[in-house]
Amino acid sequence: MVTVLPYKGRYPDLHESVFLADGARIIGDVTIGAHSSVWFNTVIRGDVCPIRVGEKTSVQDNATLHVTHDTGPLNIGSNVTIGHGAVLHACTVKDYVLIGMGAVLLDDCVIEPYSVVAAGSLVRQGFKVPSGMLVAGIPAKVVRPITDVERETIDESPENYVRYVQNYREGGYDGKGHGEVVEFK
Predict the structure, then answer these.
(1) Is the Cβ–Cβ distance between 20 and 42 less than 8 Å?
(2) What is the pLDDT of residue 181?
(3) First to last CA, the chain
(4) The whole model's pTM is what?
(5) Separation CA 77–CA 22 (nearest Å)
(6) H helices of 62-175, where?
(7) What is the pLDDT of residues 92-126, one digit of tens each?
(8) What phi, psi does 160 have (nearest 5°)?
(9) Facing residues of 117 across strands?
(10) Which domains does the chain have, with CATH numbers?
(11) For the chain, which residues score pLDDT lower than 70?
(12) Residues 6+ away with beta carbon under 8 Å from 149
C-alpha cells in the first residue's frame, strides 16, 4: 500500500506519471515531477519545509528524504538517481547526479551537476561537491573527476528507471500501490 498524506493542509503534488511502489510514504509539502519514481518503502516527509523533486528522478528502495525548519527545504533536480537506503536531509542536489546506496547527505550540502556521491559516504553539513567530481568517504572528500563511464551511467540511469516503471506497469502494477497478488504453490 502507498501512503500519500497531507500535513497541516498541504497535500503532496505528484505529476500524473509519477510511479509509486508499494510501501512508499509521501507526506506534506512535496512536489514530484514527471516520470519520476519512488520505490519500495521510501519515505519522503515534507512536514516542516518543502521537498521538491524534478523530472526523471528515481528515489530507490528504503531511501529517506526529510527537511528541517532551521535550514530549509530539500531540493532535488531532474535526472537524479538516489540509491537504495540513502538519506537526504535539507540539502540541494542539482540535475544529473548519482547518489550511491546508503549515502547520507546532511543539511545545506550542495551536490553540483554530473557528480557522484559514492555508496556509504557521508556528505557533511554545508559541503559543496563540485561539478564532475566523485566524492567518497566519511566524511566525504573529493576523490577525483568522474570518468567517461561514470558520466554515461549518470545519463543512462534515469532512462533505465523510466523503462523499469514501464515494465512494472505492463506487468499489472499500476504504480499507485496496486498490483496483482500472485500466490505461489
Answers:
(1) no
(2) 47
(3) 24
(4) 0.94
(5) 24
(6) 148-170
(7) 999 999 999 999 999 999 999 999 999 999 999 99
(8) -60, -45
(9) 99, 135
(10) 3-171 (2.160.10.10)
(11) 177-185
(12) none
